[in-house]
Amino acid sequence: xxxxxxxxxxxxxxxxxxxxxxxxxxxxxxxxxxxxxxxxxxxxxxxxxxxxxxxxxxxxxxxxxxxxxxxxxxxxxxxxxxxxxxxxxxxxxxxxxxxxxxxxxxxxxxxxxxxxxxxxxxxxxxxxxxxxxxxxxxxxxxxxxxxxxxxxxxxxxxxxxxxxxxxxxxxxxxxxxxxxxxxxxxxxxxxxxxxxxxxxxxxxxxxxxxxxxxxxxxxxxxxxxxxxxxxxxxxxxxxxxxxxxxxxxxxxxxxxxxxxxxxxxxxxxxxxxxxxxxxxxxxxxxxxxxxxxxxxxxxxxxxxxxxxxxxxxxxxxxxxxxxx
Amino acid sequence: xxxxxxxxxxxxxxxxxxxxxxxxxxxxxxxxxxxxxxxxxxxxxxxxxxxxxxxxxxxxxxxxxxxxxxxxxxxxxxxxxxxxxxxxxxxxxxxxxxxxxxxxxxxxxxxxxxxxxxxxxxxxxxxxxxxxxxxxxxxxxxxxxxxxxxxxxxxxxxxxxxxxxxxxxxxxxxxxxxxxxxxxxxxxxxxxxxxxxxxxxxxxxxxxxxxxxxxxxxxxxxxxxxxxxxxxxxxxxxxxxxxxxxxxxxxxxxxxxxxxxxxxxxxxxxxxxxxxxx
Amino acid sequence: xxxxxxxxxxxxxxxxxxxxxxxxxxxxxxxxxxxxxxxxxxxxxxxxxxxxxxxxxxxxxxxxxxxxxxxxxxxxxxxxxxxxxxxxxxxxxxxxxxxxxxxxxxxxxxxxxxxxxxxxxxxxxxxxxxxxxxxxxxxxxxxxxxxxxxxxxxxxxxxxxxxxxxxxxxxxxxxxxxxxxxxxxxxxxxxxxxxxxxxxxxxxxxxxxxxxxxxxxxxxxxxxxxxxxxxxxxxxxxxxxxxxxxxxxxxxxxxxxxxxxxxxxxxxxxxxxxxxxxxxxxxxxxxxxxxxxxxxxxxxxxxxxxxxxxxxx
Lengths: 324, 278, 313
What we know:
Chain A is an alpha/beta fold. Chain A has helices at residues 47-55, 80-86, 98-101, 108-120, 124-137, 143-148, 156-168, 186-203, 214-220, 238-243, 248-256, 295-299; strands spanning 3-16, 19-32, 36-40, 63-70, 73-74, 91-94, 174-178, 206-211, 223-228, 231-237, 305-308, 311-313.
């Protein structure tokens, strides 16, 4: 598979009252075309800021460094105008809450066809035809009628499908989905996850799924990057990361989940809470909460290193290595 | 944005506002000591330019303008405080009752407030003052009549949103009565915004009172009231000291209370207070 | 065990201007014993939160009866809640909305004692103890809610209910607004408290896997009705109602196997116009022709649990 997006040493500084603070710190990953790449982490881990940096939608006064090469061009070095062209055309986004990403007062037709007509320069009737096609692709019943409707007339799940149709309007190569199912019920979530999976197979679409839900990750992602405190804790193939994690943070996240076989056992939370912006500890950001922390964790900043084929972990003591 | 500890009161505008408020209150209290002459004493020649003898000059009746401006603070400030307090109390009670009980109580009280709201303030105040007779006391009443509805609206909105909040529900489940809920749970949420509005309103009240006097419906000559001083000064437009000094007094009082009100807003909200302190 | 909480045939209707009344809860039955955790699950709009609010009296009912410790629960009006209902408390979903931002944490937690007739200083002191009990520093009494994280706030909200010395807590999605690690620890705290204080807990959640982990019994709601109730283990291993089955197979598992969850076709219908017959029949994969007009009641099955499906036995 061809590499579609290559992010190298991405760092994002956000302006805070106390000066710039790193929200993302030296993140590197690549996404191949037709691949679903998952970025997992708790709130404040920098996962959403990563997506915003790629889209050039960071908050005011934020700064970036590093490179994010998409189809041969560095997104971070692009002029806002050029980036605006890439965004919406080659890279599209689906956000958590379709009731805010869709305009409540505009018809579905306007919203689905707007980008097509702007980016692809096609006429009204052609755009309309494609919109009908798209809505049936995302399984909206009676697409012709749906075009005339407004977002409020649809349920949350249907709205998210429409938001996906809007995102797909210009046949993007990469879809960034930030918590696409978090606001939805499980049965509806299942439908959206199946839709994303089908789209990447049928359209060779690369999808970056950002979520805190490892169950969702396990269902759709081919490879997973676990972020903590703005950095990569671990990145590797889905199965390896979720069944044989090498980073204690990933282990902790998995242990905190209710056990699939149930039972009266209590849940096992990770002690402490994730660091807030600007208060990321020195050394390994996870060390204050880590049961395996040794002195070097407090001092040296760990870099992700290859622990097995395609699997990188940023935990030099590697306490879980023997368990593999 | 800088680092370090900063309370809202350390912002330059807040300091200027607070300084002017303190200054004017002191002037009002100490007027007999500070003023070189009495407010209505005709002690000199008419229309003297400002000089060492008469720092702000004298007016058309030979009264010392500086003394009149100083005594003017004794008229405007206490009245402004009084009428803001009156409208805040009346408005808050009406708003709290409307917001808490809702239904027809709310409907009736708020239609009444809307009725008053529908008229431009100064025009309604003029009507009330004209009907009751051109007297300062009536002007105060007129201003209260036009200004309570904004408090009622504010408090009603706050009470309504807080009433449906989960923390009020939680309090009710613990066995808190309606009245206790209003006092304990809703008061802290309402008191801050009302205080802020009141502080901002002191300036407006001074302005409105002066406005009524300017129109001849408030303070009557020879009383040293800033608004009426401006209007009688307007007859001698070239003699700038007649209208400029009382005008500046009105301006500084209005601005000072506005700055203080804005600062109060930040200081009273535990969230922004902390954020600014960093 | 006698029932601590008993809800029989509870219905809640919302009256809206210019629209038919919305029946959010329709003849729901629930029982809860002391020391028991009942998980109440269902998708959004199924009426689980409304039922929870009706049980504590925050929501008026159209019909049905709710009894707490044998006494009827009357909906909360303008008057003070009767003292004998103080044992029935609620924990809300959003710990940002359920604590007054402008009151000290200690005052809010101490309220329960104060309203129980304790002196002010004593209430303050005991509030500190409660806060320590739920895992917060005692000096939290002198701080404001915004100084705490979501998980900590939810602990504060739990401490506040404990001040009323409750024997039953209705927790409405108490962990769904929290971060993953905070979710587990707050759920654990609730379980611990139930065991330690011999309380009853109704744990309302859309997160089935958490309910599976902590609940003794599970009740599943669909469109305002309870469609299945039984011991959690049974409900999970052999769901009797097709909706329960669909719900369980839609939960993705973090096992790394890459299995896509099973989709339940269609959408939850508009609760103001529920389908005739069995309410689940338009989406039901095993519906019979008769399901379109026969509305099955919740009946006790052979193994002791209950389900509302003609196919369950």
